[in-house]
Specification:
Blueprint: H1 3-9, H2 23-34, E1 45-50, H3 53-61, E2 73-80, H4 90-108, E3 112-116, H5 122-129, E4 135-144, H6 177-191, H7 195-208
Length: 215
């Protein structure tokens, strides 16, 4: 598959068949992530392959996205906290570059993937996976064979509308910051509620606050 084709046709997939993924394909996907750029060439990422159903259910019960338990597998991407650049958190950028490589490679191999940041608190993930403190969970990548081919998703703006030279000179609609701050506040509270309470209120959250996708 041509790179440009992979970039333009890849879509986030959340509905998968039950077909298992061969370990050789998983290794190819992670190898692609390993060849991504990283800050100061630290290459300090680690990848935990998650196939265990109980672990997936535990992640969801602790506040993770419900789609986690419906995907055949996932990959939790970690990065060692060796960066001195706290302002721009380049360790997160390094992990993100690896994730993009992984998603493009998965698409080229006929698999579907989805980049998930709706996860339990890092403290909880450390406990579930026995992650040492010097490694940070960054994101979780769902993987599986799509139930149906991904639908086209046109870009919201034309490329030229996204480009400005030397100064910020764009026409844009300002995001409602107050609404975002309220959502952040309640999400932070939700994350740290006991799992028993989360299970009780999750149906309401799922109905009114979680965005629904058809793919």
């Amino acid at each position: 598959m041509e790179l440009n084709e992979a970039i333009k046709n890849r879509r986030s997939i959340r509905k998968f068949s039950n077909q298992s993924i061969d370990n050789s394909l998983i290794e190819k996907i992670i190898e692609a992530g390993h060849w991504a750029p990283s800050h100061c060439n630290t290459q300090a990422w680690r990848f935990i392959v998650v196939k265990n159903e109980q672990i997936k259910k535990e992640m969801v019960a602790a506040g993770g996205a419900p789609t986690i338990k419906y995907a055949p597998m996932g990959i939790l991407v970690l990065y060692e906290d060796v960066s001195e650049n706290l302002e721009y958190q380049d360790y997160i950028q390094s992990a993100a570059a690896a994730i993009q490589n992984m998603l493009l490679t998965a698409h080229s191999l006929g698999l579907g993937g989805c980049w998930i940041c709706h996860l339990p608190p890092k403290k909880t993930l450390r406990k579930i996976f026995s992650i040492p403190k010097n490694f940070n969970p960054i994101a979780y990548v769902l993987l599986g064979y799509p139930v149906q081919p991904p639908a086209p998703a046109p870009r919201k703006l034309k490329t030229l509308e996204l480009i400005s030279y030397n100064q910020f000179n764009f026409n844009f609609k300002k995001t409602a910051q107050a609404k975002i701050k309220i959502k952040r506040f309640f999400k932070k509270i939700y994350y740290f509620l006991p799992n028993s309470v989360k299970k009780l209120i999750f149906p309401l959250i799922n109905k009114f606050l979680i965005k629904k996708f058809t793919n």
